């Protein structure tokens, strides 16, 4: 029997295709007014005082498991390189910035020398100005050219909101330069009538990788004058380009470089990230170019008080009678309410759109009981809003009209929300990089700030609030991406060939996997080789072969059966588990039941209902080893890394009571199996090791299954992934290894780099896993240690103590240090 734990991103793509810790960055103060203290008469309470007020009340203080104090720090100034135009320096001074920080001047110097550079300094350390100074200076010179368009620059942001915010900043900063700098946003929200003006006249175009992939590169002849003059490509928040998404963006950038070369341009890449480990390595892998690193942060920092907060246990019991904690959503709503009542300007970050809406609704209801004028001072902010709604919320937050905002990560990246006093983070956001990004939204004007991480009932969150050293004494994660993944590379080779026929010299640009892939693409009749190179053969757009966000497959439309109204979509990869027949589906707070899932037409028909239960899909999984790349002994056991094929089939779903999780019944389903070829890390144990760990056959399956769940829950601490990016299988006797085996695999075709990272950090990763299980206060297992929210077997069987003994014995034979990365 296989005990499995499936990722959301399982899907078929193109079919089978053959230290010394760095200092992590913490929130820094922008240099809008370098060196200046907060305005005199500032009566805002200190971060410690705000936290003391939050901790008042019955049992509140006991929920704070740790408080970290990061002291303020002064900054170090420099002078701008003499090649920065005096008009640009004057415009910067008019914005209130008398002198640059040392890292800003250094980054500008590299850029003007024609070196690609990554600026990896703290949140609000003025990275934008570090790349804007050389960019604006170059655009100003270009505007004075007697003939031609002059210089252009391209800005890439991971979100539309960040691009729009940056346009406002650039427009304000460059205002004294007149018409020399013409910034414009070009994305899905840009009206059709404006797009031609942007192509013809804008010299600083702000967009996102999606629009570059689908809109700009396929239409490059219409962008020829812009690309011919392209001097700089700015890649903001570059640490977000990780995993499958990062691998896609890396290939999009190679396509951009290829077309630029076609038009005679060789742009310099300027990358920025507040949170990145080995930033020059990650930036080089993303761009395919050598990148110089500027990481010595010379900006000042206000005081930061960072509290870890664990919600209390309730009287409720969930699956298998496990104790249930109060939800992080409810705790966060309480804290946002209290902060608003105090007049503290705050943002609460939550992982889901629904969670953001829910926190906002709860906070408004509670504020209305205090003062009827307060609910309008709180709102939600998430993706999916209309552009004008997002802009209005951003303006209200800037002006102080809004005191509190419940936001998804759409507000995490770079948007200048100066003046915030506190940030509440509802659940660990998945990486230390995101944690510091979110905490850095407060204190951006140099004042002190408070950050509170509220733990979810989850193994990783529980581990972190009781092991603060894992957050505050460790560097941020390495950015993991694999541009050579054949499932990523193949559609981009097709897109590149559609843009311009591929030639032999292009092979080196796109990587070592190209020679093997081109014949397969010819066989599939996607490309045809002629004398001039490889050509795209189809009528449809090659750029539509892939979704660079990693969804893959045609999205399933969710349609209201009675009215025909489109409610939304769900990724093809998640359709079998999310919108199977009988599934409960939530949309804008309303509950629907799925009446039919039509996989051929990619439509799920739903009707509004109000069932007193939720649904959870159950599935079966088989995994086979295709190739073992690396294998090392762990005592008698083995640690392996290689290629696997995963076959998954959703077979039924459970109906559970909403409050307690009690199972009300199980309904069979008839859905087709799906296969995934990917990369995995796996470990085996021998009979002697089982005897030493006192693991008998009756508890072996539960011990392996519990260790699998907990290890998946803890992996995001060591690789830049989310638990939903990875899957797992545990088997008491696997047919390929002939031993008890636990697999953890990437939930994306061809792999995303997460399993490889797990292999290289296995000793520390599995040590943390063992400690997380052993230190949990529950008796037999709970969501805080070994139960998984996405277990296909309904969290059966699980054996907490057996997992601890098994991991203890396995780790006894582990090498003292993890193998170095290759």
From TrEMBL:
GO terms for MF: helicase activity
Helicase ATP-binding domain: residues covered: 108-294
Keyword terms: ATP-binding, Helicase, Hydrolase, Nucleotide-binding
UniProt xrefs under PROSITE patterns: HELICASE_ATP_BIND_1 (PS51192), HELICASE_CTER (PS51194)
Domain Helicase C-terminal: from-to ranges: 335-487
Location of the region described as Disordered in the Swiss-Prot/TrEMBL record: 21-47
SMART domains reported in the protein's UniProt record: DEXDc, HELICc
A Pfam family hit: Helicase_C
NCBIfam families: DECH_helic
Name assigned to this protein: DEAD/DEAH box helicase
Species: Streptomyces cyaneofuscatus
């Amino acid at each position: 029997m296989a005990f499995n734990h499936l990722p959301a991103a399982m899907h078929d793509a193109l079919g089978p295709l053959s230290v010394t810790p760095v200092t992590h960055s913490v929130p820094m103060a922008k240099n809008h007014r370098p060196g200046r203290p907060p305005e005199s008469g500032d009566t805002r309470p200190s971060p410690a005082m705000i936290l003391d007020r939050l901790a008042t009340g019955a049992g509140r203080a006991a929920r704070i498991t740790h408080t970290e104090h990061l002291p303020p720090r002064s900054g170090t100034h420099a002078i701008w390189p003499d090649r920065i135009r005096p008009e640009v320096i004057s415009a910067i001074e008019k914005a209130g910035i008398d002198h640059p920080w040392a890292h800003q001047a250094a980054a500008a110097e590299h850029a003007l020398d024609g070196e690609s550079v990554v600026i990896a300094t703290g949140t609000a350390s003025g990275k934008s100005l570090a790349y804007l100074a050389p960019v604006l200076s170059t655009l100003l010179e270009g505007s004075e050219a007697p003939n031609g368009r002059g210089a252009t620059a391209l800005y890439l942001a991971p979100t539309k909101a960040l691009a729009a915010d940056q346009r406002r900043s650039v427009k304000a900063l460059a205002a004294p330069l007149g018409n020399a700098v013409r910034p414009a946003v070009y994305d899905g929200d840009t009206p059709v009538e404006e797009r031609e003006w942007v192509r013809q006249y804008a010299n600083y175009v702000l967009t996102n990788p999606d629009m570059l992939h689908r809109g700009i590169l396929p239409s490059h002849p219409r962008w020829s004058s812009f690309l011919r003059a392209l001097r700089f490509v700015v890649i903001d928040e570059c640490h977000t380009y990780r995993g499958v998404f990062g691998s896609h963006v890396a290939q999009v950038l190679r396509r951009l470089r290829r077309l630029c070369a076609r038009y005679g341009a060789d742009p310099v890449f300027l990358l920025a990230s507040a949170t990145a480990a080995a930033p020059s390595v990650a930036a080089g892998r993303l761009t395919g170019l050598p990148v110089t690193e500027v990481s010595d942060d010379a900006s000042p920092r206000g005081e930061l008080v960072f509290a870890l907060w664990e919600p209390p246990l309730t009287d409720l019991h969930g699956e298998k009678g496990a104790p249930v904690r109060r939800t992080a959503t409810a705790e966060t709503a309480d804290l946002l309410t209290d902060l608003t009542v105090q007049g503290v300007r705050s943002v609460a970050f939550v992982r889901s759109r629904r969670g953001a809406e829910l926190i906002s609704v709860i906070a408004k209801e509670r504020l209305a009981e205090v003062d009827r004028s307060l609910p309008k001072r709180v709102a939600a902010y998430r993706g999916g809003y209309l552009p004008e709604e997002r802009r209005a919320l951003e303006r209200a937050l800037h002006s102080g009209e809004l005191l509190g905002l419940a936001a998804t990560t759409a507000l995490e990246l770079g948007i200048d929300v100066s003046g915030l006093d506190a940030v509440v983070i509802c659940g660990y956001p998945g990486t230390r990089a995101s944690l510091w990004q979110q905490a850095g939204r407060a204190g951006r004007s140099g004042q002190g700030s408070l950050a509170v991480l509220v733990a979810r009932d989850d193994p990783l969150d529980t581990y972190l609030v009781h092991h603060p050293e894992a957050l505050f004494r460790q560097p941020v994660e390495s950015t993991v991406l694999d541009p050579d993944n054949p499932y990523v590379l193949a559609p981009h080779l097709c897109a590149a060939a559609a843009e311009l026929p591929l030639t032999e010299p292009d092979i080196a640009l796109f990587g070592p996997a190209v020679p093997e892939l081109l014949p397969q693409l010819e066989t599939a009749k996607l490309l045809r080789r002629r004398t001039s190179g490889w050509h795209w053969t189809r009528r449809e757009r090659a750029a539509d072969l892939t979704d660079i966000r990693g969804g893959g497959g045609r999205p399933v439309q969710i349609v209201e059966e009675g009215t025909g109204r489109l409610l939304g979509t769900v990724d093809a990869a998640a359709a079998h588990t999310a919108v199977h027949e009988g599934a409960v589906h939530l949309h804008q707070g309303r509950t629907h039941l799925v009446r039919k899932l039509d996989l051929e037409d990619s439509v799920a028909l739903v009707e509004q209902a109000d069932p007193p239960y939720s649904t959870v899909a159950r599935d079966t999984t088989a995994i086979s080893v295709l190739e073992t790349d690396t294998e090392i002994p762990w005592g008698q056991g083995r640690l392996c890394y290689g290629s696997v094929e995963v076959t998954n089939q959703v077979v039924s779903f459970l109906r559970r009571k909403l409050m307690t999780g009690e199972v009300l019944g199980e309904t069979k389903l008839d859905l087709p199996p799906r296969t995934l070829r990917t990369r995995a890390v796996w470990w085996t144990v021998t009979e002697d090791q089982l005897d030493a760990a006192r693991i008998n056959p009756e508890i072996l399956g539960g011990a392996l299954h519990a260790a699998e769940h907990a290890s998946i829950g803890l992996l995001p601490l060591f690789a830049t992934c989310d638990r939903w990016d990875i899957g797992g299988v545990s088997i008491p006797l696997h047919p390929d290894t002939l031993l008890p085996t636990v697999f953890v695999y990437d939930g994306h075709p061809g792999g995303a780099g997460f399993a490889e990272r797990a292999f290289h950090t296995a000793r520390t990763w599995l040590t943390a896993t063992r400690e997380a299980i052993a230190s949990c206060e529950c008796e037999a297992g709970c969501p805080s240690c070994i139960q998984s929210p996405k277990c296909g077997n309904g969290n059966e069987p699980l054996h907490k103590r057996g997992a601890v003994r098994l991991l203890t014995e396995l780790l006894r034979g582990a090498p003292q240090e993890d193998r170095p990365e290759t």
